[in-house]
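Researcher: Re-running this chain for the archive, since the previous output was lost when a drive failed. Same request as before.
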Amino acid sequence: MHPILKPALRRGWHDLNTVQFGLTPAHAVVLGPVDTATGSFLTLLDGTRGVPLLREEAQRMGLPDGHVDALLERLSGAGLLDDATGGGRPAADLRKQTRVVDRLRPDHAALTVTTSEPAEAIVKLTARRVMRVQVRGAGRVGAMIAAILAAAGVGHVDVRDGGCVEPWDVAPGGHPVEATGERRDVSARRVVRAMAPTRPPRPDRRKVGPPRLAEPHPEEPPLSLVLIAPRDGLAVHSPTPEAAEDLVAAGVPHLYAGVVEATGVVGPLVLPGGTGCAQCLLLGRTDRDPHWPRLLAQWSSGQAGRQVQACDLGLASAVAGLAAAHALAFLDGELPSSTGARWEAAAPGLDWHARPVWPHPECPCGAGERANGQEVSVEAGPHDTMAG
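Model: Regenerated structure tokens:
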């Protein structure tokens, strides 16, 4: 182990014996009392020395035997210590790729802030590289989501959509202007490859599965998450259960995101059999408003024709960023606040608020039966999708 104080947490002294790591209330830690000699020793925790060498340095500084081990245990328990050489073989291999590491350095720093164990951040970062995510929808929102996930180190990001890139699909971080007229999925995949710090082995596209949920190529990992980002705002405001029927049947977690008129929507993150799904959402809304199915039938009848739907670029970017952040949190083993809930923000105020999506007792997904007196396990991650 080569201990290093987490560089992402700024350090400041309240007084001669009290040091604060971090600025924000969510992550700041105050440590004290810290004597002058120990305060000087902290500067040696920069990842360049192993524990035996640190013990020698401590002796030269006049610190008592056992002081270094007790200090390291104290710092580790407070979540302030990282290991510059930890994480096993995958992390060691990643560190050798200087250009890749430099691209992901801010993401690694952020993970050190949100994790507590030494080397936990690099372990999560390397785990992203072997994960497979699918984005369904490559409009303004979907293409940006795919690009963000690839740039954040998710190794396999596949994009599914039909049609060709229209002028109004173009967005910073998404489809470039020169892609206008090209197939949406082809353009989005090119953006993904351009943004990825490193490229995973390319699958054989000649081997395809069912139209909705293709079986992975033998070299590809199973799907960890699917993001549903339809270009049709109605399909994210009131998603059709059929659009995710294959995901529910296969137990694949999926997250909705998009813009409808001037409202951004992120969520719900559906854990099949554990949280409310699109069918639960539809049944619940119909319980509250019996006219809802009739309205949906009218809205989905094609009355909009070829009209371009409202999708403010700033709002689309905010939705894509929030959805990608929630997706990354889930891939890293956490349950974001979109689990079983939808975050919405309407222009011009853009006040984000959450609306729960309750499991419905009549939904065949089974979440309603499991929801009685139970909650989703906080340990759930990309491959742990059931309620606790």
